[in-house]
Amino acid sequence: MSYKFINKKLNETCIYEVSASSLINMNAFGSDFATLDFNFECEDPVPCILCDEQFNVDGDEQPLLQHLLGTHKFVIGGVEEIADLRQYVLYWGKLRSLPLKDYCIVFNTNCEPGAKFPSDTYYLLCNKLHEDAALRSALNRMKLNYVVNQKELERQDVSFSRKCIYCSETLTGGIASCFHHLTFHHGFSVGNPDNIVFGARLLDVLEERLRKLQCLYCEKTFRTHVVLRYHMRKKQHRCLNPKNKMYDKFYLLNYLKPGTPWEQAKHDHTVDSDAESLSGDERIQSDMDLHWTDWQEEDLLPATCLFCTFTTSRVPSVLFSHMKIYHKFDFDSIVTGLSFYQKVKIINFVRYFVNEMKCFKCFSVFQSKEIFLRHLDEYEHCKLPHASVWDLPMYLIPVISNDGLLHHIEDSEISENGEEDKVIVPEDVMHVTNSVLEDSKLRDEILGTNNDNEVAICLFCHYAAIGEYPHTQIYHHMRILHCFDFGEVVNRLSFYSQVKLINFIRWNTAKSRCYYCSKVLESMREMEEHRVLEGHNALPNHSKFEEARWLQPVLEDDILLQKLREAGDTDEENPAEPKFCQVENVFSEDVHIPPSILSDENLRRDLLENMMTNFNQIRM
Fold first, then answer.
1. The C2H2-type domain covers which part of the protein (predicted)?
2. CB contact at 8 A, 499 and 561
3. Domain boundary among 109, 125, 150
4. Quick one: pLDDT at residue 189?
5. What is the tally of helices (H) and strands (E) in the chain?
6. What is the β-pairing status of strands 74-76 and 120-125?
């Protein structure tokens, strides 16, 4: 049951929902509540408790506290435990006309005989006073009730739509879909969407920080969007800074126990949630295991359930038990006797189908997550199909970036007799004998360079570029000397397809084989002549390089692989619509040869002769 509280102090009448328990406290306070507006969204400044000077306490309460201490010798105890400091200050404004000694604890300093400094009197307002404790308790309940109602409104608002803060895709279906998109498509973790409140404001804050070229985790500022995204991807900084208290107001967990550090509140909440997911015997065993957790050197990444948003760092005890009890998916029994890579395939297979809301038993597609999970439960389709459906190389690629569950899988299989089974890596490429690194001059040049500089190597010859952006020099070199426009060839290819293509071309070049038609030549020079004369400088058939084995690098620490882009990366300083999977291009004066020139036999031979002359000069 709820009541309406009408605020007559404001010019316009505002109506707020107040729970019955809070109303009892309000009646106990009498007319003192008339000074409050109960507008928990308001960020307007409030006057000091003891004077008319105005302060904004929403973002930073320190100016007010310092003013009270320095000017009035007045201290508020346990400020962090107050759910809404603005309402609290408005209420205690009545102390201007009341004797402070009747409401505060009085401290006299320097009152001992012979003190060097004059005596001062300080007043402490804290929850030791019954009225103050009751006020804090009432504000806590009303603020929590308001936040819960706000979360329910956001959950029901399926008409919400907004552009992704990381790419150009427009997302619909509610605020939760925006956070799911960040998690599953960009590997960006901001927490469980069910625990996020004021989600639209949080997205605005994150977008503003990215617009200012600021990393959301370490909060460093970078020169361009390209450098920022490369930093966040390489350092795994796709999460929020846990030490920044500005984000606390966006998480329901912080409203349960005001003043409790979020790490402790999260730990208590996780332990309680984990206990609810276990049966009786498992709960007893889990409690016994807690006594051994203090000796662990480091915590593993938390893992998320394959079917819902339940997350825990206690794997396998809690997570696998949760999936077995609530989703009828016995992961331990399913993966018994399987290799490490087969376990990886199962996890990515299930995550892919759950993300697509597609049943992996009957292949039906559903419109919502709730209907999908209800279907799995009612028809008992939460079981793996035949191995021929999921045991495919494509499921070696993680569906979720930095998936915590994959980190908990052991990387070796131990047989029952205690001996380690041999694991065959299916994506291993053949041993390359004719490697570009066999060139002694090239090896000496690489080993003798400064480690601060990066070295990139051409896909078709031994040319190496050294510097801050060597990959752009390689792109320019291949376009001019090898008639290979890398940006044009990989256009519209996904990130992983670009990785496969680079490794595929490198392997064929080391074999003196044309990557386009697979013709084997006597030497790398003849291969290059054949490729240019035949016009084999475009994208080959996808079936040639889309195998999973080409995900393994042919060249160790290949800079061309490290500089590839993911969806949403761009070279624009203020990208309105980021381009997908584009490469950097700093050579505005690059020469583009029209395709019509290569159709003339004489011109093609002249071009080849000039190209080989330049090539020999570079090698010298």
1. 213-242
2. yes
3. 150
4. 76
5. 24, 13
6. parallel
Q: Which amino acid is at 82?
A: I
Choosing from 103, 129, 150, the residue where a domain stops is 150
How far apart, in whole angstroms, are the C-alpha atoms of residue 459 and residue 329? 47
Residue 92 and residue 173 share a domain: no
Q: Are residues 164 and 235 in the same domain?
A: yes
441 and 587 in a common domain: yes
Same domain, 459 and 514: yes
Residue 322: pLDDT band by 50, 70, 90 thresholds?
confident
User: Is 92 a member of any domain?
Assistant: yes
- The pLDDT of residue 259: 59
Of 217, 212, 213, 200, the C-alpha closest to 163 is 200
Res 567: pLDDT: 53
CB-based burial label for 502 (10 Å; 0-12, 13-18, 19+): buried
Q: Which of 316, 341, 339, 342 is nearest to 329 (CA)?
A: 316
Reading the block at residue 525, the tokens are: 């020079």
Judge if 130 and 169 occupy the same domain. no
Within-domain flag for 339: yes
Domain count, the chain: 4
At 620, which amino acid appears? Answer: M
192 and 170 in a common domain: yes
Name residue, tokens 């419109």: 367
pLDDT, tens only, 485-540: 888 888 888 888 888 999 899 888 888 889 999 888 888 778 888 887 788 888 89
Give the pLDDT confidence score for residue 584 in this predicted structure. Answer: 37
Query: Could you give the CA distance from residue 428 to residue 261 in angstroms, rounded to a whole number?
Result: 48
Stretch 231-248: mean pLDDT: 82
State the CB neighbour count (10 A cutoff) for residue 216.
21
Q: What span, in angstroms and rounded, lies between the C-alpha atoms of 126 and 66?
A: 17
Indicate whether 415 belongs to any domain. no
Spatial neighbors of 25 by CB under 8 A, at least 6 apart, are: 134, 137, 138, 141
Distance (Å, whole) CA 55 – CA 62 = 10
Asked if 207 contacts 165 with a C-beta cutoff of 8 angstroms, the reply is yes
Same domain, 201 and 276: no
What distance in Å separates the CA atoms of residue 134 and residue 260, rounded to the nearest whole number?
Answer: 19
Shared domain check, 459 and 384: no
Whether residue 32 contacts residue 132, with contact meaning beta carbons closer than 8 Å, is answered with no
CA angle 412, 501, 521 (to 5 degrees): 110
H or E stretch including 455? strand 454-457
Tell me if 422 is assigned to some domain.
Answer: no
Burial track 468-495 (b if 16+ CB lie within 10 A, e otherwise): eebbbbbbbbbbbbbbbbbeebbeebee
The residue segments making up the domain with residue 513 are 436-619
